[in-house]
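Hey,

The postdoc asked me to send both predictions to you directly instead of through the lab channel. I've kept everything plain text so nothing gets mangled by the mail client. Protein one:
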Amino acid sequence: MESLTMEQRTPHGRILGAAQASVILVLLAVALLFLRGRVSGGEEGFLVSGTIVLSLGVGFGLSAALSYFLSKSFGLLNDTASHRS
């Protein structure tokens, strides 16, 4: 039953996850758009796929940035490094 419950993530984890997804999707989109000119007959498919994936990557990046600034303004991001020492 415990495996069915969702674990609560910290704001740091959520922001980092969105930033990681953003980087991966943007790199995938760049690769698809690069292949557009290299594969004959697949220009349109690579262009459409690359554009969609790039849009998702940019969206995740904007989401991570917005989450960071909102979490900072709400006081959810504390300087945990100073508390450890």
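Protein two:
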Amino acid sequence: MRRASAWFFGPWVQVVFWALVIIAGWWLLDVGADRARDWWPFPRARPQIVYAPPTTTGPAPGGWTPVAKAAMPAVVNISSTKITGRPDGPSTPFSTDPFFRRFFGPETVPRRERSLGSGVIVTGDGYVLTNNHVVEGARDIRVTLQDRRELQARLVGTDPMTDLAVLKLPGSGFSLLALGDSSRVDIAEVVLAIGNPFGLEQTVTMGIVSAVGRANVGIADYEDFIQTDAAINPGNSGGALISATGALIGINTAIFSQSGGYMGIGFAVPINMARQVMDQLITRGRISRGHLGVAAQEVTPAIARGLGLSVERGVLVADVSPDGPAARAGLRRGDVVTAVDGKPVEDAGHFRNVIASTLPGTRVRLTLVRGGRQENVEVPVGEAPERPRPAAAKQTSSAPATPGLVVTDLTPELARRLGTGFPAAGAVVTDVVPGGPAAEAGLRPGDVIIELNGQPLRSAQDVERQIRQAAGRDLVALVNRGGTTAYVVIDRA
């Protein structure tokens, strides 16, 4: 035993031992820290996110060049690899070609497919913001820095509903972009877009903010885009949109194009929304959004006239989930919400984003108009479910014709098959005249009309009676489609 101890405490053995200890410690604290985090079995504190403070000065005296050069090291190239070509995967030209299918059968050999995009380093310890569609389904994600270093990134999390994703690079001491305040971004501000369009690394384009608060574009579920005419092309996705001060104000996400290239309309996720998503993915590992259990839509002049509303701003409550927070607080279909916590509601997209960004459990004060009177209702915000309701099934039948559509009585059996989620009351649309007012309004077979011009319907005869009473005026129909209701204006002018 003494000989073994003497051997261990010998000078050369001690030198080797402590050298190994120092190397192992460096590896765990630096390169191996991210890998060790994945298998460490004991509870640990939530990671702390340290952002750089934004600058308040304007462009440097030398013009836009210093601003761009200061930001470029934080914008990275992202190369992701995924496996395609499996029987249950996306089709390819070979798998759909009858000649190849006849002689070789369906394609079953997996293929590696690479895609390119951009990302932005926003913390010194290597957290990267990018788009979900850049890394969606990827098995291998590699990030190339401005100095040509290539690092393998770890996917922290994704949020398809905003088309955002967060990556983590191994190590620390990275160049980063300070986060700005996208709520202060205004129309006609000069901005720079930095990314890797068509694989051309570190490309800078210049433009202005064309619009803010763009929603209903059809790109993501939650939209509040900054629109810009700074040239954005394929490969720019996930790149930086920066202000005159060099602060990050948006993550470039999509373009509007009929040719696949730049047409002067690009969209960026505002950094305030991206920061909320990133903070939750890093600290909680998932996204939690506020939810009231209502379906809201715009109050258009036609809807206001048809329902006799005294306001033309705000959002109209088209549906209230029976077991949601709004129903428990007393909200009703037909209420018009004009403000949340005293702040005016601009449109349905704005209202949805405000509620979604509210922490579940928070109580919000809704200002609404009901029956011509203004009321304040306090509602505790719930947590949004992850999956939307399924679409409605189609149903055909025969019934008396009315202008532009054919309806029949809603029976309990039809209600069950259509998944309305309500008692059997109303009229089912069984046919729509092509090009007629109902078709132009978006009605289709399988829709259930619950109300016309604010009057509840019990049968197909009620529909005919309300149409006659309207005497050629526009009709506002409350329509149930697959359990979700919305108001539809049938323009009869």
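Summary for protein two, as requested: The CA atoms of residues 143 and 149 lie 8 Å apart.

Thanks,
C.
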